[in-house]
Amino acid sequence: MECVRIPMLCTSNNDCNSHGLRCVNSVCVSNCETDLDCALNEKCIKNMQDLNYCMLTCRVDNDCFLGHICLHNRCTSGC
């Protein structure tokens, strides 16, 4: 059985706190130390503030959720 996380949109960490997540780039994300801490379709990445979080991975735009695009194998908010 696969574990796939459905992303939730957010405007601040308060939108994610009840789920134990935090808000990064308008999406609630989970903290991680390695890829094993993430869902099957995610990778553990480090952002500019040296905080690790799980990010949805992709090969094409259709791998991402509505409103997101695949850029450098990671789903990011579209314009």
Describe what this molecule looks like in 3D:
Helices cover 0% and strands 30% of the residues. It has strands at 22-24, 27-29, 42-46, 52-56, 68-71, 74-77. A two-stranded antiparallel sheet has the order 1-2. The protein has a two-stranded antiparallel sheet with strand order 3-4. Strands 5-6 form a two-stranded antiparallel sheet. The protein is globular.
Measure the end-to-end span. 34 Å
Pattern of helices and strands: EEEEEE
Fraction of residues in helix: under 10%
Query: Number of DSSP strands?
Result: 6
Report low-confidence residues grouped into runs of 5 or more.
Answer: none
> What about the largest sheet?
2 strands, antiparallel
How would the global form be characterised? globular
What would you report as the Rg, rounded to the nearest angstrom? 12 Å
Q: Largest sheet, order of strands side by side?
A: 1-2
Q: What share of residues are in beta strands?
A: 25-35%
Supply the number of helical segments: 0
Average pLDDT confidence is 83
What class, by secondary structure content?
mainly beta
